[in-house]
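Lecture 7, part B: from sequences to assemblies.

Below are the input chains for today's worked example.
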Amino acid sequence: MTSAEWPVYQVFERPAPERPLRAAGSVHAVDSDMALQNAWAVYGRRPTAVGLWVVPRDRVLMKSKEELAGFSPRLEAGTDREQTYCVFRRSGAKVVYEQATSVLATNAEQAMARAVEQLAGEDCQACWVFPAAALISSEGVGGECSFAPQQHKWFRDHKSFPVGALLRDARAHVEESDDDA
Amino acid sequence: MLSASLRSALDSKLLRLGDDEFILGHRNSEWTGHGPILEEDIAFANLALDELGHGILWYRIVALLRDEDPESYPDQLVYQRGAAEFQNVDFVALPHTDWAFSMLRQFLFDAYESIHVPALTASRFEPIAEAAAKIKQEEFYHLYHTKAWVQRLGLGTEESRRRMQTALDQLWTPFQQLFAPGPEESLLVDAGITADLGPVHVKWHEMVVPFLESCALVVPDDAVVPRLRQSGRSEHMGPLIAELQQVSKLAPGAVW
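Predicted structure of the full complex, as structure tokens:
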């Protein structure tokens, strides 16, 4: 099985308490539990966040600025109950998607329309909406250490490992011993 | 102050603890770049790195007992001992045959640590209690991760279940070695410095057997814990240590 066959989950992190969620990246996983574990392995070990969330990508409606310009939502009179949708926005100044607001809507298209309305006049390069109920939090995972980022660990940047120079030294050393022999 | 006999018993116990973790971590690190998907590759490499780190924590206490520098002495223990001097149980050195094997071995070990390490946090020897507290923090995630994989493979396809069962049949008996005490270990247990492995084994058994059965696996029933732990019998240690020490032999004293 290749990773291409596994569903993708978007990963969000909270950079500090009381700060809005922001997109960290994505992971492949067969279910939300694995998604959370993979998110933690890939994004949680650097001390940049206080919590992690995942959401299946197929639950996220994504629109760029260009797509939004001609966007007209399909607003059929659904019988679905209204629910809360999270709205993430990418502004020109920030490269990452950050939670901008939340809206009540009966479906994703309507949520997108309401989000655009709310964000009118603000810089919005792209917008994501998804049901808040689809977000899975690391906070629910129990245990004494939970999925908290590993604040006590510091990883050295790969540049601090002079592998090239070391290998050259090792080769020189081997050649020297060969000469001796 | 520790008496001479306690000190010597503790020294070899710490090598057993450190070598079990370090050699397992080294073996698992061989999966780096070969995991089933990129995310799991990173996750399993992280687990391996944690085990190497735990090994070093125990080696630092060996340094303390031997009045050596805790920063540099772990390197000496890893890079300058011969294969026969390592005190790890043999099964941690077994080469991996497939993903199921490595995952199950790590799960069984994590389950053992999830019981053994909290018991060590109550050690009357402060450095052990401190090291155990640090290790405990990481073990929750290890067990969470490996349990999920054992479950997925056990309850997955016919092939994944068969591979898991083969791994269990292969690992179950050698694994019991982990619960066998070393020659002077009872001195340490009586002094409240390390944990009695007997109750650890009972709890481990109570934890893993129902879980493995819930994963559609058949637990072999002929497992007896040996009276004394044996180390240094694995034919795999020689090649493993040769590879582990290769760079340090080529460039002695290199700084990374």
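Note for the exam: Confidence is low (pLDDT under 50) at residues 142-146 of chain A. Keep this in mind when comparing with the next example.
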